[in-house]
């Protein structure tokens, strides 16, 4: 067989952009995007994306140039997930909750040549542009304007919007031949990490990795043809875990909402007969604790990730009719790569046990080559006893190319044939892994390792608790001890005494894991994707000073 070799016929570069082209043929007259009173079909979406790609290409900003988008989950945001790479550029979605200084840093670091800006965020972006030193070339600004303020540019003395998004659609070429990547390893996306534990880093993914993770995500979640998908997960968060392109692959209907609100979400579920949605555990919590929540008329598949969902939250949400699936992933792998593959025999278990099992991350998805939990020093696999903690490592075709302009950070996490995630977990005897914490979130008290996630799960089981986060507080005797930050459910009276929460935990946890400090807050600080900002809480705990606990022994 030596004479058989790859050819141009069987070596076409893999790219998820072909999904949209196919959707226009197979699902051409089916709804693709619904937003307020606007509905597009898949043929219209393909046409609009070609026109925008044509307009971007005509500006000659260069192949593989970075094009940024600062927008919520609106139709233009969805279209740009295709249009930017179809123009041969690298798509960079920016977190809409960042401040102007941080956005300026990202635009400079990525050398963004063009920025699409939602009309409600233009002052934020103009401020960020003004913070870029004059020696750097400012990017071209395009305004994504609402129908009622089309053409309202609000000029700046130095920087202004060159055009509106709809003008690009209107003037673009519908016959544009979109730019096929020369190589499937060409960069396609640039996403900056959320920065919950450290400074943001620019994660670069190729067309190939996005193609693989998109296919993998659809198969893993058993997404059928033509689902109705509600966008409660920000598209700027790892490109919506790849479901931006995935919905085109299966001809789904994308229900866009500008801002998450439990009332609006429940109304959308009922109005559009939503079948699928994604989000961090905080979204599950908000849906479960919505005072006017009622059981759903039909089941809704809900994929959660970003943090281990407390079993109590899973239990409450499923009682309303949501079918919760738990996945694990990170920006560096562009989506979910470990999930709790469900076994039919588990359906016979009590509800509490089912919820506990669903809180585990599970096993690798089909698109990932391997996942393991290893001793970070030796690199050897830890015991499969569900107790011995180690670092979660991954390998497979959906991994990032690396961090933009940061070879040191790339080499630090991608070594020995693995991606070292920085997440701490255990491996159970059945081969299912479970996250215990981020490595920086492990609390070491008196030589014992405390998983903040385990303590939080117990706190979530308290009927008065809405949100819970546990971090380390300095302690004069133990070095550090658990400090719990809590918000209470709507309607709960004055904050209960600190000792009541401590005793609640003492009855359910080993002594060394019990919080020694409890702080009540109206709401815990979070990133735009719903992750609790533990670095902020650690700062608060550190400013409290060391706790004198020797007398409490």
Automatic annotation (TrEMBL):
This protein's UniProt keywords: Ligase, Phenylpropanoid metabolism
Residue ranges annotated for the AMP-dependent synthetase/ligase domain, each copy included: 20-404
Annotated InterPro entries: AMP-bd_C, AMP-bd_C_sf, AMP-binding_CS, AMP-dep_synth/lig_dom, ANL_N_sf
Pathway in which this enzyme or protein is active: Phytoalexin biosynthesis; 3,4',5-trihydroxystilbene biosynthesis; 3,4',5-trihydroxystilbene from trans-4-coumarate: step 1/2
Residues in AMP-binding enzyme C-terminal domain copies: 454-531
Membership in a protein family: Belongs to the ATP-dependent AMP-binding enzyme family.
Entry protein name: 4-coumarate--CoA ligase
Organism: Rehmannia glutinosa (Chinese foxglove)
